[in-house]
Amino acid sequence: MLKLATSVSSCSSAVCRRRRSTASSTVRRLFSNKSDNNSDNNNKQPEASFSIYEYPTRTEAPIITCTSAKDVDPERVLMATYEPRRRTTSMDPFDETGSLSKEERLDVKRAQQTYMESIAQSFSSLPITADVPDFIPPNVPSTELTVPETLITTLDNGVRVVSQETYGQMCTIGVLTNVGSRHEPTTGMVHLLETMAFGSTKAYDGLEIAECLQDWGATRFVSHSREQTLHCIDVLRPNVEKGMHLLGQVVLEPIIAADAEFYNAKAVLEFQAQEQLPELVLGEAVQVAAYGADQQLGRLHFAVPESIDLLTPPSVKDFYEANIVNNPEGMVVAGAGIAHDALVEMAQREFGNMTQQSAPTTIPSVYRGGSHFIENDPNKAASVYNSFDHEMQYCRVALCFPVGGWHDDSMVTACVLQTLLGGGSSFSAGGPGKGMYSRMYQQVLNRYGWMETAEAFTTFAEEGGLFGVSASTPTPTKVGELVTILADQLARLAIQPVNEVELSRARNMLKCNVLAQLESRLILFEDMGRQVLTYNKRESAQQTCRKIDAVTAEDIQRMVTDMLVQTPSLAATGSHLEHVPGHEQVARWFS
Q1: CA distance 352 to 243
Q2: Which residues have C-beta within 8 Å of that of residue 71, sequence separation ≥ 6?
Q3: What is the pTM of this model?
Q4: Which of 17, 134, 431, 432 has the most crowded CB, counting CB atoms within 10 A?
Q5: Cα separation of 161 and 385, whole Å?
């Protein structure tokens, strides 16, 4: 039975009263019941009355009337009414009976206004004033503003500073370094540092840092990978100097000691190691299969239970100081939405005293090709990633080959091909930009209903990269066919050039993704920082789009042909791994 619940209570302003009145009249028009048209006017419910003296601090509960739809008055919705209550104390802000004089009402209003303003001031680090603060960019036509450009400055000690103005009220500042999990002596060290980031420093404890970020209207982000680390703060523009000082503390003076924060971070690693996202596990297996666990790029990035106990405060502190604190030439300070001169001045103040004493040792990894399988523990408790039914647990497989790294001309070609193959999950809401016309959707997911996911992927590093395809299925008898389909998709690219329609679609979609991502201040910051850290320069979006447009079908076919002559890498995780074809068998398919 449909129920209507209407309530009558005092609103906080005349605007609220007008809205209530409008809503009531609308409801009256929508609900009509002609059966009561002839009822006696004396039996009609009186109209609801509203207090002429209303405040937003009212605390009593509203009176609610529930009415069945069939009983609704045809001319109007019956409104709940209540008896005006008497003022019980002198502190009562309501006066439905009109016992206060006009002067007394004004006095109460002034007292409440003063009180509310004092609360607002106590929660704001930036009170609203009549004069426009100097830090707010001038409100002028865009034609009078300087077109934003990326500016780069190198400090005397080697720290590079890069920025681009956005003329907004927020700015993103951060620090990137050229150290990652490939450089760590013990697996999980960088993972632990990422977990501990923005913890206690020599000047602030962890709680103080959290309170400062909240008071400054700031959000912090941390991302550590195999080759780089990133710390950044997205902050209101007037608080950017405070944010930069905090960054200096977080990056250069973190407390890494045998305290509660250190062991709490290790506890977090233990929980994460118990069960990771299946996609992350597959990614780890791909690196091991391609390079071997004895090379830097083949090392695990995330901590495992066996390595967590080996992480000690002295060893972590020594690694951090040697590779970050004493390595200014491997550091980039980046800012999006800030004037370059101001960022350089702040970077000089916070990071200008660093001296070059050491740097991470990068040993180039050589692609080998092989296989690496990680099977689910059958005794493991069920969870969001692990089904109760063993037969319904997924088998995830990835097949990949070597391509060029960050400095190779084929990198853009690989990105275009990844977009052309596309893919994703068997469930998608569709719509523009979802890649529903990509090959992995049209030729794989839409054709084989037993396949849950199928997509292309790329990974890049300093000395080389990987291009491959991955898929998953819960059907054990289809695992072998799944691997065959993945291999077939790669082989087709070498046998027959892609047609111009899908190539044009892939190029346009990749350009759209690049340009749309760079609309984000955070992405702009990260793009500038990582490019300067990798190339010591920043390539504009226009240059990137020109490179994408220059990719031809012949470029794709040539790249695929070159990579397929190499030994494939096969990775599998999950359940039903006994159905995955062996590495030698898969290698023969491409020989």
Answers
A1: 17
A2: none
A3: 0.76
A4: 17
A5: 42
